[in-house]
Amino acid sequence: MTRVNLKRLFLTVALSLEAATAAADYQLNIPVGPTETSRMIYDFHMYAIWVCLGIGVVVFGVMFYSIVNHRKSKHPVPAAFHENTKLEIVWTVIPVLILVGLAVPATKALVRIEDTSDAEMTIKVTGYQWKWHYEYPEEGIQFFSSLDEASNRARQLGSDLAPEKVDNYLLNVDNPLVVPINKKIRFLITAADVIHAWWVPAFGWKKDAIPGYVNAAWVKIEKPGVYRGQCAELCGRDHGYMPIVVKAVTEDEYKAWVAEWKQNHAASEVLE
Ligand SMILES: [Cu+2]
Hints:
Helix 2 packs antiparallel against helix 3. A five-stranded mixed beta sheet has the order 3-2-1-5-8. Strands 4-10-9-6-7 form a five-stranded mixed beta sheet, covered by helices on one side. It has two domains: about 80 residues, Helix Hairpins; about 140 residues, Cupredoxins -  blue copper proteins (Immunoglobulin-like). By secondary structure, the chain is of the alpha+beta class. The protein has five helices and ten strands. Copper (II) ion binds next to loops.
């Protein structure tokens, strides 16, 4: 490759990298959500990364030191030793300690994430092809949550509505799940037809929704807001069109929403 060509190649790569960074709203690290579990996962992830980095620095340090200081030109005759009990004990004990140091906090986090006891309220989530059904057993509230109409219209072949014109295209639903903040909410997750998975990245976990089986998970959201997710298990033709929207609101707003819902829905028409 000529010099000019190389220069052009370098420029093209540099420019496209810059364009990609500017255009994409992405981050390299995992996000920290508004929940304790999400923070715990993030903290452990960072801790593990630093441990790995430390191991890398030590291992590569020893390797480069050996390459440079024990090169053939400096030591033409290689050392001829075999076995070193002390060294072997050291390189067994240190990795074991590192593994224990990783396993203890990882197990603690896992146990905490799985512990759905002492929940203050329960929400039952059922996956359908291709929508979600939410039920608040204590309140007698239940409804389906499907892709919003604008997205559904825009996604059709030859639609008169352009996807760019739709806010949160394919990420909005008609009836979002409304939950109060600062309450431990237990989710009971299942499915009515095939396997789906309920996933809101901000919460830090995702759970399979399996017909005939109930999975449990919990969340305690600390910040009001709209949290979005999607079905995370390929479940058929419209798998990509069953988003999840969770609206986390204050306790008072939640109570008002419950009252309003009950007023608008007679007991007889709870299920479609
Ligand atoms: Cu699905």
